Each structure stands twice: as C-alpha cells, then as structure tokens.
Amino acid sequence: MKVTYDDVFNSYMELRNKIRNKKVINYFEILLESNINYLVNSINKGYKLSKFNIFFIKEKKYRLILSNNIYDKIYNHLVSKLILSKLDKYLIDSNVATRINKGTRYARYLLHKYLVKIKNKNNKFYILRFDIKKYFFNINHQVLLNKLSKYLNLEEINIIKDILDSTNKDYINNKIKLFNNKYKLNLPLYKKGKGLSIGALSSQMLATFYLNDLDHLIKEELGCKYYIRYMDDGIILMESKDKLKYIYEVLKKEIIKYDLEFNNKTKIYVSYEGFSFLGINYYIRNNRIIKRISKKLRKDIVNNRINYINYKFYKNYFRYVR
Prior knowledge:
Structural class: alpha+beta
Largest sheet: 4 strands, antiparallel
Oligomer: single chain
Shape: globular
Order of helices and strands: HHHEEHHEHHHHHHEEHEEEEHH
Strand content: 5-15%
Radius of gyration: 21 Å
Strand order of the largest sheet: 4-5-3-6
Number of strands: 9
Helix content: 40-55%
Number of helices: 14
C-alpha cells in the first residue's frame, strides 16, 4: 500500500475530532508535518504496528478495549479507506454496521419498513432474533483471510494479516489476566488465530464483512426478504413458523463453518409477544407497531453517553412518543 502526504494528512484530519485525548492531538501537531512525513515513509516501506494500550470500560457489562496510539490509528484508518472500503459493494443492503449512510438509524428504518409490509399481509408473523457468542473474540483469522482473498490482492491480504496477527501477542492475555485477578472480572482471553481488536475501524469493517456469505445465503438462497444484520445481531421476519424453524436449523449448521455459535439470546418470537432490536422494544397491537426505547438506551441518552447526532434523533423520538 503506497500513500502520499495528502492521504495521511486527510486521514488524520478525519480522525482528529474522534480522538478524545486532546493532549495526544496537541503533541502530534507540535511537529505535524514531520509526523505526517514519518508516517508516509513508514507506510510506504512496510508499517509495523505498536503495542495496544489495554483497558476496560463498564457499560451494560465490562468490555475490553485494545486502543492504538495515534500513528496506528491513522494507519488503521488508511487501511480501512484504501483497502477495506472496496468490500462495501459486495455487501447486501441490509448489512448495516459501520457503513456510510447506514448504521443504527438505517437498521431501524429498514425494520419499520419490513414490519409494515409483513403485518399488512398477516397480522400474526414470526421473528427470529439471533446473536453470536463473543463475536469479536471468535472471528477465525484464516477463515476471514480465505474470504478476503476473493476480493483483495496478495499485498493487501498481507497487510490485513499483520493487523489480525496483532491480537496473537502474549502481552495482551497477560494484561487481561491481570485485570481479571485484580478486579474480579471475567474478561475473555484471545485465542491464537482468533479475534479482532475491539475499537479499531479496520476491526469493525472486517467484522461487518466476515458473515457476508451467510448474508447472501439468507437473502438469496433461503429467500428471507425481511432480514437485517447489525454486526453479530440479526433479525429475520417471516409469516411461516415452520419455514423459520427450518431456516434456524440451517443457520445453526452454517455458522459452524465460520467457527462461531449462537448464544442463548437467539430465539423465535411471535409478533404479539414483542421483541427488541438495537435498543428499541417493538410490539404489534391491533395491527399497529408500538415502539418503546429500552431502559438501557434511555439511561444512555439521559447520561449523554451517545453521540450528538443520535442524541437529537432520540430527543425528537421521545417527544414523538409523548
């Protein structure tokens, strides 16, 4: 991968506002031109990733974060922009995580559209909600590289391989064990040849792509018109319970090929029972779609733990519900 000064500078400017530690930005910008030139030369000669800064945060549960330094962040951004962005055209429309003009809001828009269509055909229908067990930690590097090799050249594959190999280092698990012992946690460990770093843009894009073949199977071969996947969180709407049960059995076998398994949240619901998806609880009552924001999402909004664009959306949504 060859880059120019403008490539690196533009990537830095795109990242700048997303970096919370302003001291890091200030130090980087003291010698901005020198740092940009250093990155251009390093990337063109063959960039080597540094060690992660490893910590954990508490949201609904404790989550492990593997954070890159600013140089690695820019490199990751460039890899995502110049290499992984090529994969977008091969993804189905309803694979909605980490994609331009898609994401959470688009997923909810699609789901509402699908619910309107299916309830108008049949007031009673069925919903398969699937969730994959420890998705980021269990993504198999070799399976992923084999799938990427259909779309990327050898040089690009080797760049991705280096990024994947960064989770195979012993210091990562040693730090996780230290956290687990010190704070009485149960953070998962990385297995050799498995897992993506949590937090990097390249990891998010690779996780979005990993189940691409499964998405096409569901939509095109199994004929599921009303299907959405947001990373490891998927939903299928169908009028026939028997057919949905059959699809569920097919998927349980198919997911093994990806070295993954569904967790215990995976379940088939009846429309009148209600179900949740991406922080919204949905109910069908008297052929009407009723939406309620989940308690966790409501708490995040009140505590301003979501970005400003989504905050405006939910603020308006609260007003609409009232």
